[in-house]
Prior knowledge:
Blueprint (H helix, E strand, L loop, with lengths): L4 H6 L7 E4 L4 E5 L5 E9 L2 E9 L5 H16 L4 H17 L2 H12 L5 H19 L9 H13 L3 H20 L30 H12 L5 H13 L3 H5 L6 E2 L14 E4 L1 H7 L10 E4 L2 H14 L20 H8 L10 H16 L5 H8 L9 H10 L1 H15 L6 H5 L6
Antiparallel strand pairs: 1-2, 2-3, 3-4, 5-6, 6-7
Amino acid sequence: MSLTDLQVRKAAPREKDYKLADSGGLYLYVTRTGFKSWRLKYRFADKEKRLVFGPYPEVSLSKARAERDRARALLREHRDPALEDRKRKMAAHAAAGATFERVATQWHDDQRARWSPVQAKKVIQAFKRDVFPAIGALPLIDIDGPTVLAMLRKVEARGAIDSAKRIRQHVSAVFCYGMAESLVDIDPAATIGRALKPIGKKGKQPALRTIEDARQLLADMEQSTSSPLTKIASRLLALTAVRPGVVRAAKWVEFEGIGWDEPTSPAIDAVWRIPPDRMKLELQDKEEDALEHLVPLPPQVVELLRALRPLTGRIDFLFPSIRSTRMPMSENAIGYMYFRNGYSGRHVPHGWRATFSTIMNERAITLKRPDDRAIIDAMLAHRPKGLSASEMAYNRALYMPRRRELAIEWAELLIQGLLPVEQLVAGQVRL
């Protein structure tokens, strides 16, 4: 017969320790001194075992029964409740001692192999400056979303909006690391991204201004530990000077005049036909009419595409997302590569357009080719003021032979000393 609260409360000490049975193996153990505790007797692997739930009245009759039911559920799954209880206590103890600073330092050490020395230094500096003073001493399990947001608000308050967003990403990565180590159950930083201040409209994007610096950037990226697809996307972006969003979402159907089945055949008329709807997405002024944009492709781009084709040619996108081949590469992939490898504040993906324009316009002046300036604008899909859409479309078509010559000239200037495409694609698995 099961115990009642009254029986448990009135259980008095006797000359010897004794037990009051409840049900399902649960019993109240009463010592000669009057101390009462809940215990469970059970069998596991043909052995009789005992599990202590805790003292009465701290552990009530109803709570003891709930613990009994939990233990019996584990037995039905062929798991030892005593072992599971010990594992749970060990995990709780570990989590209580797992401060954010300790776990973040472990995470940072594990990431060093995939970062450049510059990136590793910047991440730990940001943690020491902004994160550790605020939440470093707190156990991961005690940190919630409002605590993380309050810390990031201080970063925003000094005008470092970009830094706040990057720090949130790193903090989130630390919590994901903690989840994998069974130190915490949730990532409180994952849900507060939308609460941060938006990045204001930017002025001129940082960009390199000499062909020597441009070559060095590509060489640095292509010798880094970044993924081959990101390196290839970076080279394609530099060679074509289109907007970064156009490259990351490029589709194979947009490329014409390349004999994919004849890798040694010339492709003198190869073009990249970017449809108006994709150009529209990249316009700064969304009210502006978007036109189809034709990009004449020099041999260096054709060679790059032919090397990439066996890797991603079976899917729509040249550069698919690492999460799903039905989605394009992350919009930040190339930018993060530049940032991680020492070009923060010096050059961004969009900066290739300014680099191309600066270098090629300087050559137009030096080599006394004044007509090239309008053609360079056409290659960048810029519309001069006062020019109608129909006139612009006509001019682009009219300039195509010279645009192709300038595209080849730019590619020959930029590609000097870079890795052969075969080495660039090495290590990328077929998708």
